[in-house]
Amino acid sequence: MQIVVFYVAGALAIGSALAVVVQRNPFLAALSLILHLASLAALYLVLQGDFVAVAQLLVYAGAVMIMFLFVIAYLGDRADLDLRRGGLGAGAAFIAGLAIFIESVIAVSDSNSSFHAPAVVADSFGSPATIGKLFLTDHLLAFEAISLVLLVGAIAGVVLGAGELLPSRSRAEPAEREPKGERYDLRREFLRREEEAEQESEVGT
Amino acid sequence: MSPGIGSWITLSSALFCIGLVGVMLRRNPIVILLSLEIMLNAGNLLLVAGSRYVGGNDGHVLALTVMGVAAAEVVVGLGLVVALARRGAPLDVDELRSLHG
Asked: How close is the nearest chain A Cα to the Cα of B81, in Å?
């Protein structure tokens, strides 16, 4: 049973990954990546990684891929660039990929591994309770570091995404925009711009 | 009946190489980020498989950490893409060479 799921989900994962790479339309490429992530979740279930499988579906298919689809929709036809490297670049890419794959296959076939069968594990293997306990005891540093990384990522997303609303040092009117000694206030700036727009529309009528 | 760890390593390296070819082949930054996700997930698959065959849960913890890092990386990457698009820059990594010496 496990070996059947392994081959079916593995073939699905490889096929959808190839579709991501060769697909011309980025929207369809993102949709094939969702299929890829779902088949990987099935493979995690074969490996008794229950919590990782659920986290994979929630974090990747649920959050990260929505972000991808949202950005592709936001950019509209600008995202639809079908650009690949031609000639030498494409050849180098294929040779590099193939070389690394062949190398790892040779390494696997030569190795005298003792891991031919999965280890005997308890039922609690891969359960949320086990992993939560590990996160809060042995791997507390990783837990704290990842929260810091996510915080920095969120700040970076705001800075990069809301660039126009953040304080900008325009060359034309630096003094007007940022009065000395007064701290920049996003809400006040927003209200000021709104007022200006209202006045302009009144002048227009 | 379950496959040996060699099958998992082969599958994982195949997925990693597909992602690598995608990163090197495509010039659209969004598709490059998608291919990067394939590479990160290939690494995750190997971590979970190793965890199962060795018999500890540490690989799962590392895989979840990688997921968090990947999420943060996607936020920064897509933020850069949106900022570039807003400035009217072309979405083609070969055209963006103002930092090229």
From this structure: 9
